[in-house]
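Ticket #4471: structure export looks truncated?
Reporter: QA, pipeline team
Priority: medium

Steps to reproduce: submit the single chain below to the structure queue and open the exported record.
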Amino acid sequence: MIAKQVIRSLLLLVVLGSLAIRANREYQKSQAAERSAQSPPPVEVFPKVDGDQVVMTYFMMGTRCVSCRKIEALARETAEKDFAGQLASRQLVFRVVDCDEPANQHYLKDYKLTSKTVVISHRRDERETEWKNMDQVWDLLDEPAAFRAYLAEPIRQYLGS
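Actual output as written to the record:
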């Protein structure tokens, strides 16, 4: 009889200890989430240039399908082939940003993103002055020339060329 009570007490201690550990982990997670929600997004550092600068960003999130990879490849190709000089002089910056990363989730609100896309932003005096969500990239996937022309238009406009 005493052995049953001892075993029952030990089991109860193990269960209570497990619950306490789990509660502590959940508390730590909530504190970390609260701290990250309160902290401002990191300051972006772009190369300094004289005059206007354009940033072409492919925003990705979640799993990447064949079409998603094609959008990134065509956007990169547009930057590298159609704007090689501007890319070299840093008047054009091409980057890929993963919105699944906690530090990048602010872009979802900043640019009102709902899916993977390309955003082209105009910077003047190291500040973003305007931007365009190039959401038609999905419609132009099978037309590489039209895709590149579509992305090139705001870049040329922002660079004044």
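Status: closed, not a bug. The export was complete when the record was re-opened. Leaving a note from the reviewer for reference: The mean pLDDT is 87.
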